[in-house]
Write a structure and sequence with these properties.
By secondary structure, this protein is an all-beta fold. 0% of the residues lie in helices and 58% in strands. The protein has strands at residues 2-7, 13-20, 39-43, 48-53, 56-59, 61-77, 80-95, 100-101. Strand 6 and strand 7 form a beta hairpin. The N and C termini lie far apart (43 Å).
């Protein structure tokens, strides 16, 4: 999931689900630390998300979820358990096309 800049009327952050088709393999040295998968660029002009993974670019599209979801956190205070809403998910970013390689320094002559 990724955090968007939006918030709901009650001030709860709005997040989005990132859906990828296929397998993402990464070299992770320490499994306990968070890992950056890639860079997400979002073009507001045509609502077009672009994900850069290493030397590849994936073009995606934004899809509004039919039913919003809540991200909740279980909190225990003095033996009592309650749940806190951390975020609301109203959309997903779907990347289902094949990645395109980023090519730089192309030779003038072949």
């Amino acid at each position: 999931m990724f955090k968007t800049s939006g918030k709901t009327e009650s001030g709860v952050p709005e997040w989005a689900i990132v859906e990828l088709q296929g397998l993402v393999q990464m070299k992770k040295e320490t499994p306990s630390e968070p890992t950056t998968v890639g860079d997400l660029h979002y073009y507001n002009r045509n609502r077009h998300p672009v994900l850069v993974l290493g030397h590849h670019v994936l073009n995606g599209k934004e899809i509004k979820l039919e039913h919003p979801m809540a991200v909740i956190e279980k909190v225990t205070d003095n033996g009592r358990t309650h749940y806190k809403v951390k975020a609301v998910v109203k959309k997903k970013l779907l990347f289902k096309s094949r990645p395109k390689p980023i090519i730089s320094n192309v030779a003038d002559r072949v």
